[in-house]
UniProtKB/TrEMBL annotation, chain B:
Major place of residence: membrane
Annotated source species: Enterovirga aerilata
Enzyme Commission number(s) from the entry: 7.4.2.10
Signal peptide: none
Pfam families from the UniProt entry: ABC_tran (PF00005), oligo_HPY (PF08352)
Coiled coil region boundaries: none
Protein name, per record: Glutathione import ATP-binding protein GsiA
Subunit note: The complex is composed of two ATP-binding proteins (GsiA), two transmembrane proteins (GsiC and GsiD) and a solute-binding protein (GsiB).
Recorded GO MF terms: ATP binding; ATP hydrolysis activity
GO biological process, any: transmembrane transport
Length: 273, 615
């Protein structure tokens, strides 16, 4: 499982790294502007001479946290809605699917702008600047990305609930809750895990987009997306600036997707040993 | 056969690569097929019969399989041909029909187009010629009104008709050899009889040879000139069909033959009789053991069903309005005593499974009453119903599908105990071990997953699970239909033994008349959602009154080549559909009592038998 190793290194790097490389992220040094990687600055510096390794480790915490938290929100919301729709035989299913279609057809950017202008100040007041923006971004990304999971779960439920083993358990006198929790959900979970890992990647990328638009974290917080955004104007003279955060996003997304595939196989008792 | 054989297979071996090792699935199989001859390849699942057929056609996966030996067709060794030449052989000289007519046609193309395609491709016809030839072929396989049906899509055809289309397609290029891989297994008995007749007739007309692959000795007796018995990848016995049936040499052949349920073998036995135990080394059956009468006649029946009716609405159109109704179960009444087995028989779509599910309220019936131990199941609320389900359990057709693949079999068997809060964890474990022993498995198998078991073992697990809560009634929905004959016999015996030991009442739903004859005390014949005849087993089998009952019994293949039907009576009667318009009012049905307990529907709903020309 090389991908688990890669992800572990990335996570350990952003958690422990700042302790081992205690260079401040905002120390401006104009004498080392756009320096290429060297012993002083292993990942080089940006246009203000700030150390990129330190900035990446700091920003990575936020990017990864946003990714996982948003995935959790999207997967949980999607699974619950999909499960309810998949189990209902009357009106709830079409209604929930209309809601899903509605969310899918919403223009997301104007909606994001609206949400952020309406709630940014309240959240900042309660959770502080970074905490407020973090919660807002997680909720917005999670809340706008649950639809594919919901559809997937519903489709799985629709086919699984007609399976004979489900009927067999029903014939034994099992309650609906037990059917869903013990029998249908565990059998539906494989594809959901894969979808979930894709959500992590999508959330990391979405956060970059938001930062790019100035809707995410304040510009002085160097999330990986923000770093990429800042680097784009200097690609010709300082490609390393974009390459390192880009590679970090790429490796994270790739390894998470591989882990998702591995998890699905590991959860399947039928796999050939 | 003194003439030159059409196909001669010599020392054919096929190996598959599994986990970097080669495993031989077919070992040194040799046989020949003469002109106009039908050779049956018979064996149980895993015997390598299908792989043999696929190897002849070189249809096994190229990278992970290895075929050795020789397959001579028309003087050429097919195994040595280049790929392009082999593609010519397929379809041109050897055609194949498969088990599943429902999935072997492309649903988005008309059947005419699909047949014409083969004609244009292989015989270089123009579109107009191909169309004319298509009509001729459909006529040949006796599809009524062929001219008007060539533009229909596959979903407009029933299973039997689709199999006819598949045969027409196979005949398109006038093959020398037709390989039929279990072509009738998925079909109902009456339809199966039609298709077998059709294949025989076409073989005479076209002069082709047939390689017929089946697991059913009855079908072999009906159709084959010579038979190759396969077991564990080897051809254990080869001979003329009459010889093999009369003087089986190999123990496995003897075992296979003694395990085949034969219609009429129960005459003179008042109660169900277990299948004879067969000695594995000689293949000879032990004398049957009679079991005592298990029916509690004095007590109130366990199950009383009165006027049970279940209908489904078919919705369609933009607004999803009801367009018609399936009258799946129509005023069905019967009762079932402790220790008794009532068989519900009929063909697909007759409502027998729906009846079983309606009794358990897994499907909500429209009306009628179901009394279990005198208590009205229909009046129960959801919670009470869940509790009462303890008394009635169900065993399904496909044991693999009815076990949760993510649960160990121990957990699956303990589940009904846990659901009904009947046992603590430790008690449940102990009970599971006991149940596993009871159904003939070892208690330490509890930690394994369903996919690690064979089909027969899985069905035993399902039975153990159903028994866990000590039910009064077991609804067995085609519970032994999917099993191999020898396994089928064992599972049936287990069910009989459990009935005697636990005083179980069985509602035994099946289309297999021979098994029904063996296990049941009483039989109800269903046709289009109604019971057309019900009575004691001996009466139904010995003195069938309703025309549909007779037709059903006649269609059962007889595993005796000496009694092969001489007369070609080719009907293309289809199963009728129980779909009715919304305003349909089912007619009142009257029943006539033939003898005590033997009731026959008077207003005959089945079509009359096709007229038989005197021999």
């Amino acid at each position: 499982m090389a991908s688990t190793g890669v992800l572990a290194i990335l996570v350990a790097g952003v958690l422990v790294g700042p302790l081992l490389w205690p260079v401040p992220i905002d120390e401006i040094d104009f004498s080392a502007r756009l320096a290429t990687p060297s012993a002083d600055h292993p990942f080089g510096t940006d246009d203000l001479g700030q150390d990129l390794l330190a900035r990446m480790m700091y920003g990575g915490r936020i990017s990864l946290a946003v990714g996982f938290a948003a995935m959790l929100v999207a997967t949980v919301v999607g699974t619950v809605i999909g499960a309810i729709a998949g189990m209902s035989r009357r009106y709830l299913d079409p209604v929930l699917m209309w809601v899903t279609d509605l969310f899918l057809s919403l223009p997301q950017l104007p909606l994001l702008l609206l949400v952020i202008y309406l709630f940014r100040d309240e959240l900042k007041a309660v959770f502080g600047v970074e905490g407020g923006v973090f919660i807002m971004i997680v909720v917005v990304i999670g809340g706008l990305r649950w639809m594919p999971v919901a559809r997937l779960v519903r489709a799985q439920f629709l086919s699984l609930r007609e399976k004979e083993f489900v009927e067999a358990v029903r014939a034994m006198g099992a309650s609906r809750w037990r059917l869903v929790v013990r029998h249908i959900l565990p059998n539906a979970i494989g594809p959901v895990i894969v979808a979930g890992t894709i959500e992590v990647s999508a959330a990391i990328i979405a956060e970059s987009t938001l930062s790019f638009l100035g809707l995410g974290f304040p510009p002085d917080i160097p999330t990986w997306g923000r770093l990429l955004f800042d680097a784009k104007d200097h690609l010709d003279v300082a490609p390393h600036w974009a390459l390192f955060p880009g590679a970090a996003i790429f490796l994270t997304v790739l390894s998470i997707n591989f882990i998702g595939d591995g998890l699905r196989d590991a959860f399947d008792p039928r796999r050939v040993m | 056969m003194t003439t030159h054989p059409v196909l001669s297979v010599d020392k054919l071996s096929t190996a598959f690569r599994v986990e970097r090792r080669w495993r031989e699935v077919v070992r040194s199989v040799s046989f020949t097929i003469g002109p106009k001859e039908t050779v049956a390849l018979v064996g149980e699942s895993g015997s390598g019969k299908s792989v043999t057929a696929l190897s002849l056609m070189r249809l096994t996966p190229r990278d992970s399989s290895r075929i050795t030996g020789s397959v001579i067709l028309g003087g050429r060794d097919l195994l040595q041909l280049p790929d392009a030449a082999m593609r010519q052989v397929r379809g041109d000289e050897i055609a194949m029909i498969f088990q599943e007519p429902m999935t072997s046609l492309n649903p988005v193309l008309t059947i005419g187009f699909q047949i014409a395609e083969a004609l244009i491709l292989h015989r270089g016809m123009s579109r107009a010629e191909a169309e004319a030839e298509t009509v001729r072929l459909l006529d040949k396989v006796r599809i009524p009104a062929a001219t008007s049906r060539i533009h229909d899509y596959p979903h407009r055809f029933s299973g039997g008709m689709r199999q006819r289309v598949m045969i027409a397609m196979a005949l398109a290029c006038r093959p020398k050899l037709l390989i039929a891989d279990e072509p009738t297994t998925a079909l109902d008995v009456t339809i199966q009889a039609q298709i077998l007749e059709l294949i025989k007739l076409l073989q005479e007309e076209e002069g082709m040879s047939v390689l017929f692959i089946t697991h059913d000795m009855g079908v072999v007796a009906e159709i084959a000139d010579r038979t190759v018995v396969m077991y564990g990848g080897e051809a254990v016995e080869t001979g003329t069909t009459a010889d093999i049936f009369a003087r089986p040499a190999h123990p496995y052949t003897r075992m296979l033959l003694s395990a085949v349920p034969r219609l009429g073998s129960m005459a003179g036995h008042p109660h169900p009789v277990p299948f004879p135990k067969i000695d594995r080394t000689t293949g000879l059956p032990a004398p049957p053991e009679e079991i005592p009468d298990t029916v509690a006649r004095a007590e109130r029946p366990v199950l009383e069903v009165q006027d049970l009716t279940t209908r489904f609405e078919i919705r369609g159109g933009l607004l999803g309005r009801a367009r018609g109704r399936v009258h799946a179960v129509e005023k069905v009444s019967f009762d079932l005593r402790q220790g008794e087995t009532l068989a519900l028989v009929g063909e697909s779509g007759c409502g027998k499974s729906t009846t079983g599910r309606s009794v358990m309220r897994l499907i909500e019936p429209l009306s009628g009453s179901v009394l279990l131990d005198g208590e009205d199941i229909m009046a129960l609320g959801e919670r009470e119903l869940r509790e009462r389900r303890r008394k009635m359990q169900m065993i399904f057709q496909d044991p693999f599908a009815s076990l949760d693949p993510r649960m160990t079999v121990g957990a699956a068997i303990a589940e009904p105990l846990v659901i009904n809060r009947l046992a603590s964890r430790a008690e449940a474990r102990e009970k599971t071990a006991e149940l596993l022993r009871r159904v003939g498995l070892s208690p330490d198998m509890a930690g394994r997953f369903p996919h690690e078991f064979s089909g027969g073992q899985r069905q035993r697990i399902c039975i153990a699970r159903a028994l866990a809560v000590r039910p009064r009634l077991i609804v067995a929905d085609e519970s032994v239909s999917a099993l191999d004959v020898s396994v089928k016999a064992q599972v049936v015996n287990l069910m009989l033994e459990l009935q005697a030991g636990m005083k179980l009442a069985y509602l035994f739903i099946s289309h297999d008349m021979a098994v029904v004859e063996r296990v049941s005390h009483r039989v109800a014949v269903m046709y289009l959602g109604e019971i057309v005849e019900i009575g004691p087993r001996a009466e139904i089998f010995g003195n069938p009154q309703h025309s549909y009952t007779r037709r059903l019994l006649e269609a059962v293949p007889v595993p005796d080549p000496a009694r092969r039907r001489e007369k070609h009576r080719l009907s293309n009667e289809e199963l009728k559909s129980p779909i009715r318009p919304l305003d349909y009012v089912p007619p009142e049905r009257l029943y006539r009592e033939v003898s005590p307990g033997h009731m026959v529907q008077v207003s005959d709903s089945a079509p009359p038998l096709p007229v038989v020309a005197a021999a």
